[in-house]
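Exercise: predict the structure of this protein bound to MU-OXO-diiron.
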Amino acid sequence: MKDTTISQSVRYVGADDKTIDLFEGQYVVPNGISYNSYVILDEKIAVMDTVDKRASDEWMENVEKVLDGKQPDYLVVTHLEPDHAANIQALAEKYPEMTVVASAKAVSMLPQFFTLDFSHRCQAVKEGDTLSLGSHTLHFVMAPMVHWPEVMVVYESSEKILFSADGFGKFGALDTEEDWTCEARRYFINIVGKYGMQVQALLKKAASLDIQTICPLHGPILKENLGFYLNKYDIWSSYRPEDEGVLVAYASIHGNTAQAAKEMAEILKVKGVEKIEVMDLARDDMSEAVENAFRYSRMVVAAPSYDAWVLPCMDTFLRKLKAKNYQNRRVAVMENGSWAPSAGRCMKELLGEMKNVTVCEPMVTIRSTVKPETVTTMEQLADVLLEK
Ligand code: FEO
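Solution:
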């Protein structure tokens, strides 16, 4: 278990979930996910968010243990998505004197999720509002679309803690020993990636705060080297490549396009590219392919023609990239077609809908299998792809 100690007054009461099959109904999480929640003990007591219904019992036990017979005065809701908010009604019913503190938008959305009438128990807060708990003071910072419209983050000024909602979250339960960046990047790009502009706005606000600890709603509590995490968020949310390198993303029916993609990777390697990831869009994790597209400065897409269009997993991949605001990259296109190639046209059409994506020429057209003349075009395309 990662260290969840924050301070005498600020306690972790979240829970790990290692049995969930798909997070948000779509993302594989081989090491599970944590639903983080916190309690601030002061003259007034605040519970900071709840957890997913999959972890209700464990969370309620943790909360009661930390409360030690006391009553919470506030439940602060930074995000109403059910992986954090599922237990709002349960806690409110258990503690009828407790006030729910949330953005006005969150307050207006409560009836969508719950049957309890919260109308006399809510305190709607806005940008710049504060709430004193005694020696701790909560400062509310609105963060719309990071990752829902009602989101806010909370800065506690006495201990310099940022309760960052989904921001700085990561896939993986807290007892997982793994690199932060990889699973935080996959989480960010796939879940919040579309809203880079809104994240940039939040980072600007955060820059004016003296932050010593970040308490996200998923993943480890961040206490050291915070500049590292803030810098990663700045790169990801501004759609800048994180690494010079190439993602070779392919789809293949009988293995010939896969073979061509792998040969292209070899060509790029010979030309000096150090970081190359080759991914099979039908078999590798799609969210990881999307993540890698954002990670690297360049991409090769290789796919066969199918139904006068392109093999569906490539279509899905490119549409996902567009949805996540993929931009500012150089892309090389390789199509395969045995009688009437259509994949290249389709891939170019989808790439053409993205912002500032340069489609390099000449496109490679494979007629069933790679021939010496195909390799010549692949060499030319690789050179153009690697131009600055
Ligand atoms: Fe972790 Fe947007 O919920």
